[in-house]
Every structure is written in structure tokens, then in C-alpha cells.
Amino acid sequence: MAANLAQARVYAKDRHRDQMLDVCRRLLGQPGGRDFLYRHAGMLDDAGLFAGTDWQDPSVLSPALVGNTLSHADARTAVLEMVSEIRLLAVANGDFYHPGVVPEQARHFLTQVLALNLNRLLSSGGEAERVREDALGALIEGQFAYLQDRVGLDDILGRLIEEIWRIMDQRPIQVSQVKAMIGQIAVAMVDAGREAGEGALGADRLVSAAFGPTTGCREDPGLEAYEQRLAVMDTTSLQQEAHGFARAMHDTGLVSDYHTVLLRWLVSHGESKLLPAALGLSNTGIDCLRCYEELITHLIREAVWPATSQTVLGLAMMLERGILYVPPVGPALWRQSAMTLAPSVEQRLAAAFGATSGDAAVTPRTHLLAGVINLLGLPLGIGQGNNPTCQSARALSMWSYSDPDYLLHLVAQAAAFDDLIMNFEGQPIGGAAARAAQPPLFLLDVDPVSVVLVPLLNGVYEEMGARCAGRGEDPHKWINRELHGWWVGREFNIAVDVNDGALVGLEAFLRSFWATYHPLYNGNQPVIHPQPAGVAVTDSLGRFIGWHAITILRVALDQSQTMRVYFFNPNNDSGQNWGNGVEVSTHGNGERFGEASLPFADFASRLYIFHSDPLQRVGLPSVPAEELAAPMRMARESWGAERGER
């Protein structure tokens, strides 16, 4: 049958592939069937089982997609995925050679697959999964067991721990999935004596930070029991608890539910003098807390609960930023804490986070207030979730970073009226009306502020685009400066013809970028306000994936004296391999929490839009042609490879 598939003409390939996949499905359900497929993995690949499918090139497969593929795809696709994993296992063991995939890559992929589906190894899953998978359920369970036996659980846990640390280095606002994974690690480490291998130390720190960071709660006694312990602690013990929570929070980016119990207890029992220690504040944060102590204690009472525990980190970082000294911010937070939400807004928040979250005091209004505090404290921690909303997520981040009172103004409008008014070239755009003109947007995996604002912002963004139709140029030329704020550069630079996608004036484009942002060619001028920009995202082979909105934050030398561009990427995980040696870094190269970075030329090789000030470049030195040669070549060989150029 494999020979028939290999010899089949193009028009008959799918029919023969379906027959082959049916045989594979039956083998997956038979004792020794996977071993048979393992021994014949090379033959199946050579016959063209994966040709013309997403599995054709295993080097660009994403382990994050495997779980959903197996759970939600049709049987044919699920079987193709499982056979592909067996093929990669053969590559990892050196029993099959596939061009472009080395054994280390294949093993790394399988380790990530198991790490991201650890719940399947520790439990049988929920009822919905069992019903959805139907007859495939047993095959999927058998597949994970087969891979686990041959890859090893120790390596899986080590890899999962490494991934969690990498993600938390970016200080995301949404950490529910991370906490769920840490819970899986905790179970796995005590289940049948399993250990995390080389990552055990990191695992202990993560588990303790989430479930028992201090002496008073180390054995995870329960929230009520811990509150009773606080009542009998002396001042020294309370100080030790406060310092322990703060160390764990700032070390990992995770906030334990017990931390919220301590903060609420300190406020309600007249021990506010310990708040700086419990929040881990520097002198800047302490000064801000003392100036606005009434507001901060009020926010703790209203927004800090076990169900909103990450708000503690957001509150600490908001104080460290000192943005309460911006006159409108304090009054706006008082307004937010007392706001009555529109019924439709309440419904959306309740659907996303629950109406009460197990505590009658944690209402949709509480979730929104907590979300506002988190965004003000962690403007680079917001993400777009699994949604095509990078423009809106970027806007929220930029406003929190540069114009927090404007952000609070928009939140107030949207929360109270489920609407907002923005202007485009002097004409108002109503967010609700613009949203109604677009298909419904159901947001997944986002923070409370995004739940309230992003559907409206997306509608406004689309309406702005519609008003630019027919101008013959990229609409972001006008949208970016109208949507984001006055600080966006008035000059718009683009390296692509919007009509046919061809590269246009690449050298002049890059020369302008150097003159605008590179300190050696722009008169050593720093980036004052974060600037919107657009990148051409490529996969690990350098192939074009799509256009993406990012924010240029700063340009500086790293510790190895390499000039780097530090930027914000709203895609929830800034660490990416864009191919041809362009690997985005999120830590270890001078990045601050939430920043991604690339060497200046590498970043420029994927840039296609940026803004500049037309007056800034007057009298500046020219950029040597040899400095532009590498990024020009990298752009042409990656996202510009099939576009043509003029």
C-alpha cells in the first residue's frame, strides 16, 4: 500500500493517503502496532504520507499545537499527527534520517509535546475531552504512554520547568495556565517518587512560590488556617512572613494566594507599616505608598483576593513606577473602584472570570479593578491571547506605559457604557457602533481590561481602516498616529508596496531606520516615547508567516557591547526563532521584564514599517553601505524572497 501511495499520480494521492492512514489507525490500536510504524517510519515518509500537508517539514512543527490537534481535529488529522510523532521518535533515536531535522531537535520537540500535555499523563482528562475524542481517546492515551516510555518523564519535567521560568521572565499578567502547570509539577514530583531531574531545584522554587513561600504556610495549610496563624504571630514573625512573600514574588513573578491573605490581614489589623516589606518595595515605591496610603489600602481591600492574587505584583510594580504622581491617576483609580458596570460588561467579565470566583466579594467589578492595577504595574505584561488583536493589545500597553490617565479614561467609558468615543482626523468614531459592524469577537486567554476594551478598540481600528480605503497607501500611515497618541512620529516609513507586496526602496528604508534609532547615527538620541512598528514574522526556516504589530521601546548596548533593539511583542511569548539565525531573546541580553530584543541589524532585517520625526535627521552622519548589506540580504532571503523588488 505504501508503494501504491508513492507511485500514485497527484490527483490520486489523497485517496491512497486516506487508505494508508486507515491502516495506520488500525495499527495504532493493536499491540505492537506503534513499534511496527516506528520500524517503517522512513518508508512511510518516503512514500509521501506527509507530502503536501502541514507535517511535510517536521523542523517547523509546533509542539504547542499537538494537544488541540489530537483533541479537536478529525480522525484523519489526528492519526497523521500521531504517525508524525513516531517518525520523529525514530529520528531522535537515530533510526531514521530526515534532512533538516537532527536527533536533538526531534527529541526536544517530543519533550515539549509531553511537557505541554502533562495533564494527560497524570489524569484521564475531563468529561468533555473523553466525549470529544470518542473512539480516538484510547489511541491518544496510548500514544502519550508510548512516547513517555521512550522519552522519559524526568526530561519532560525538566523541560516544563525551563519553559515556565522562560515565560515568567517576561512577567505576563495572565498566569493561570502557568499555575496549572506548576500544580501538575507538584503532583508529578510526589507521584510514585518521580523527580524533576536537573530541574528539581527550579521546580521547588516554583512550587513553593505558588503554594507555600513562607514558614507560616510552607505545608499549604489552607487559607483559613493561615489567617488563624497570623492572628497569633508577633511582629518579628509577621516581618519574616512579609519578607518571604516579597522575595518569592519578585524572584518568580508568581503570587501565592496566601500572600493576599497576609496583605488583607495587615490592612484590617492596623499593621500597614509592614506593607512595604510585604510588597518588596524600593525607596521609590515606599515614598509613593506613603503619599497615597489611603488609596493603596483601599485598593487592597477592594481588589486583592485569592482569586486575583497576581494583583499583588501589579500593585507593587505600579508603586515602583511612581505613576500615582501623575495627577489624574489617583482620582481615576478612586473612580474605577466605585464604578457601576454596564450589564453587558458584567456579563462578559463573568463569562471570562466567573461571577464570584468562589467568593461573593470577587465580582466582575473586582476583576476589572484588579486588571487595571495589573496593567498599570505591568504595561509589558499584557498579551493578545489566542486572538488576532495585536493592534489593540499594543495600544493598551502603550497607553499604560506613556499615558496611563488616558487609559483609565477609556476604561471608565467602556466599563460604564460599553462604548467609547475616539477621533479620527477630527471625526468621532463610536466604539459600540464600530464593533457592531464587525463579526463578533470572542476573546480567549486575556486579562480583564482586554475583555472590556479590545472588542471596542478592534471595531474602532477596523473603522479607521475603512476610512482610509482608496488612499492607495498602507492605512497604518494614518491609523497609528491617530489611534496611539500624539507622540507617534509623523513620518511613515514602509518597505513594501501595499498593492503588490513587492519590496520598495529597501536600502533607503533601512538607512532611515539607522538614522532614526541607532545612537551612533541619530546624535545619540534615546527613544523618548515607545513607537509603533511592524515586523514581517518568519518561521524557523525564515519563511514569511504574516505582518505583526510591535512597539520599539529602546535601543542600547547589551553587556557584550552589541547594539540591540528592545521591543514589546503582544503575542504572549516574545521568545521566537525567526530563522536564518534571527532568534528573539527575552532574557540574558539586558532585557527588562516584558521586553524582547534582537541585535540591531537582525531586527532591521524583519522590519517593514516604522515611524520617525522628519526634523530629527537633519545634519546627521550617513550610514555606511557595508553596515546595511547584511540586513538587506537577510530581508531578501527571508520574508522578501518571493516578493520581487524595485
Description of the structure:
- The protein is α+β, with helices and mostly antiparallel strands.
- It has five domains: 2-151, no CATH class; 158-209, no CATH class; 222-386, no CATH class; 392-483, no CATH class; 491-637, no CATH class.
- It is built from 31 helices and eight strands.
- The strands form two sheets. Strands 3-8-4-5-6-7 form a six-stranded antiparallel beta sheet, sandwiched between helices. Strands 1-2 form a two-stranded antiparallel ribbon.
- A hairpin with a 2-residue loop joins β1 and β2.
- The protein starts with a helix and ends in a 9-residue tail after the last helix.
Would you kindly provide a brief summary of this structure?
This protein has 646 residues and is an alpha+beta fold. Helix content is 54%, strand content 8%. The protein is built from 31 helices and eight strands.
